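User: Here's a protein and a ligand (FE2/S2 (inorganic) cluster). What would the complex look like?
Assistant: Let me lay out the input and then the predicted complex.
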Amino acid sequence: MTRRQREIPENDPLNKENLKLLIDQAILENKDRPGAVMLVLNEIQSKIGHVSPCMQVYIAQSLKVPQGQVHGVVTFYSFFKTKPKGKHTIKFCLGTACYVAGVPQLIEKAKQMLNIDLGETTPDGQITLEECRCVGACSQAPVVVVDEEVQGKLRPNKFPQVLKKVQG
Ligand code: FES
């Protein structure tokens, strides 16, 4: 095993044959196009759901660009994630109506119950907490989006029920 392979965590997409194939395909298809870094990152984010630090190094080496360039793009755009998302996602609407109606209290409740911050995933890989912009359901404020389902008029004391449902 080479030094580089040893440094790649076991669960990294680079260590999974089918995912590594997707990464290599994205690189191959875009490497000679203008804006190759962005094109490759976009494709990998869309297909795999994140671009880990190891993947960033691999992409930089494959495209023959500085690692800092790839890392810079990933950190600049919030669209790119560096860790895999949980099986379920709970998004909190930070639009004005929801904010005023009490989304910050809901966020606090969720953080407290799950012991993670916004943008993080529970250690068991089940739930990711995220923020989102107005989802067009302002009359239902405060709103959270659980996976694809919009849930409105949610109060912190009802949040445990939401969590229970998500956790099955
Ligand atoms: S502000 Fe939250 S749905 Fe519009």
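Summary: DSSP finds eight helices and four strands in the chain.
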